[in-house]
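Sorry to interrupt, but I need a hand with the structure work. Could you write out one complete protein record for me, on any chain you like? Could you add the entry underneath, on a fresh line?
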Amino acid sequence: MYENNFNNTLILAGQPRGTASSFLSRDITLLNEQTLNYSVNIGENHFLQALVGNTLQRNTFQRTTLAGQQFPGNDLPTIASSATQTGSSARSQAGLVSFFGKATYSFKERYTADVSLRADASSRFGANNRWGYFPAVGLGWRLGEESFIKDLNVFEELKLRASAGRTGNQAGISDFASLGLVQGGANYLDLPGTTPLQLANPNLSWESTEQWNVGLDAAVLQNRLIVELNYYDKYTSGLLLNVPVPRKIGFSSVVENFGAVSNKGVELQVTANWLPKSAVQWSTSFNIARNVNKVEKLAAPITAGSRDIFRLEEGQSLYSFWLYKQTRVNPESGDAEYEDVNGDGTITVADRQLVGTAWPDFFGGLTNSVNYKGFDLGFTLNFERGAKIMNMNRFFLVHGGTQSNIGYLANQLDRWQQPGDQTDIPRLTTNAASNNYGGVVQNLSDRYLEDGSFLRLRTLSLGYNVPKEVVAKSRLNSLRLYVQAANLFTITPYSGLDPEVNSQGGVANTKNFDWATVPQPRTFQVGLTVGL
């Protein structure tokens, strides 16, 4: 990928005499995979299928960056024309070797067993622990084929299934995470020099997840009602984390396998085919799920996000908000007051606490579709319940007069104004320590933490498939006309623009942190799908 940017003097980014940047990046993946398959029917009742294989993979990444400042004019945008030029380059490479095998056995299509094993070696890990071994087994039993179930004449399908296995992860670390590294640039008196960059860890190895689950599939009322139920238990250990080390050795942390997280949950999906034998085909599918996660093991609490708003702590849930708990606004003084957790009489960082989580109690959706003589009508609803959202828009825009260059939201009018006022918004003042903005780490309190539950109409569509005999005259295979709308309405107690926020600034995947986040748009489409 090659990219050039030039900011001329007509915009702020180009002041005072223009800036430019140029990027050249190359990401190359070489992959070689070979597999051998074997399948055989043994008599009438037995079926066996097997697969073995090997994969070799190498990833190489290169990036060169150039920058220029102070240009003679807007008509000369090339970096070679600039008065000041800087550059940098980076290169990284990683390799993966894998061997894998899988076998599937079934008896009378009633009992099935799947067994698999992977062996992976990654160059990212230490020389002592590059190999990881990941077995898995799955079992299925079609109870509906047993005579004692068939005789009930209730189920069209009834199946029990269970599986257990282990998987590995190497994401989240650099290509050279296990190596002791030095870097250049530590120059002295115009002479080149190097400095230590990273501690070595020859024992660094795979992050592994052990999971088991059981499930039930059932169909009744001549397949009018189909139910899928699943329970899972997942335990991830050997987390790839930057673990703190004594600073006297010259480093603050080292990448290690330390920590564990558990996830347990249940999932239910119910599908109803209301009119299976009618000219009108109508089906509805409803699903709901609940997941409970917990940090099982951690060397030390880890804070993350803007102003350390999130905190990972042993025994607590992931995505937990670490904030001050506002107890009230003093009705006499109008100052915000916070819970003194350690009872020392002052509010410090030691008084921050876990006051909610961005993870919902449960979530799911509803899909409905109707088809009749070429016409189709459908919609999808999604919902979440119990998740918290940190509304940083309110944090900055209900600031009480301490930020002269930032405006206000309307609920600033609900602030404390005279003795006796009962409100949770403190007085208007330029004293940051007495207000909601400023003071102890800018007083990030749970007052800005809101309920993020929602019900959203995700899509609504109406379409028409032109009859094949009409389409055939135009030498086409199919022709469909449709209109579709997305995000028509959202029901939520959240005061922000969108309860589905998962980013902060330029950092992606920061769940339920809302600071000037662009909401999902409401869109309308009219389209034509042509099959040739």
Notes: Residues 143-300 form one domain.
